[in-house]
Amino acid sequence: MKVLALLKKDFQEYGYGRKKWWAERLNIPPLMISHWLAGRQYPSGQYVEAIFDIFEHLEADKYLPLWANHLYEIYFSHLKVDENILKEIIYQILKAETIEPRTLALASLFVEKYKLEFEPTEDRLINRLGWLLESANIKPHFKPTLKKTEFFVKVDLPLDSKTLHAYLKKQQTKQGKRWHLFDASITQIKESFIW
User: Which of 13, 18, 117, 121 has the most CB atoms lying inside 10 A of its own CB?
Assistant: First the structure.
């Protein structure tokens, strides 16, 4: 099973203490992961999908600084850029597990300035794209997907902190609740950018 091979490779790279990390993200006991790795049980489709989603976020996290730098370079250098390239940069940024509020604010400004329209091609980006469009004062033509609330905005608290959920709920905007995202207001940050 490909998903188990990915997990084993992840544990080889980060150590078996990572079981707790995976268990928290999948909302399961670490023992279940041990059973999967030993071949005593296999993850259901729901967990396979969740594991692949996490790996996609981890992969996107590696390239987030590169894509964010492109966005900032376009802004600070006043570069003219093709809208399709700009949309691709924003898509790549949105794939990361969590994103700095300043980067989200800049992406929102570009969406607003160029009136960019997005057609979600990946189910896991629907809520993020909807949130971004609304933050740019554009009404999305699609609805939020029904799923549990996911992390979106990077915060300076460890992910395994017991106070994290309470903190994120306190920071979450009405827009974030609607799109099932732990977000934060980017209004002031957007106002700090000058066009």
Answer: 18
